[in-house]
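Tip: read the tokens left to right.
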């Protein structure tokens, strides 16, 4: 089982990865034909939702409530 610090670092790495993927998709979207833009838009929505989810988890870990880490450590 990961320690809290390891878990936070893992989430931070995921967040950085999602930010980079979003940036790349935005660039690609600017150079994409109109008929293919809905697929890019959908992928951006999915990545941004995941990015927000990770951000919320990190914010909760910064100000943990009693038992929060134990709940995460037990799978949720």
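Filled-in amino acids:
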């Amino acid at each position: 089982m990961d320690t809290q610090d390891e878990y936070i670092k893992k989430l931070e790495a995921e967040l950085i990865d999602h930010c980079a993927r979003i940036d790349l998709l935005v660039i690609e979207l600017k150079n994409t034909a109109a008929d293919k833009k809905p697929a890019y838009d959908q992928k951006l929505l999915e990545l941004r939702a995941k990015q927000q989810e990770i951000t919320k988890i990190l914010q909760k870990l910064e100000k943990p409530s009693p038992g929060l880490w134990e709940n995460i450590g037990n799978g949720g």
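The first helix runs from residue 4 to 30. Residues 29 and 35 are 11 Å apart (CA to CA).
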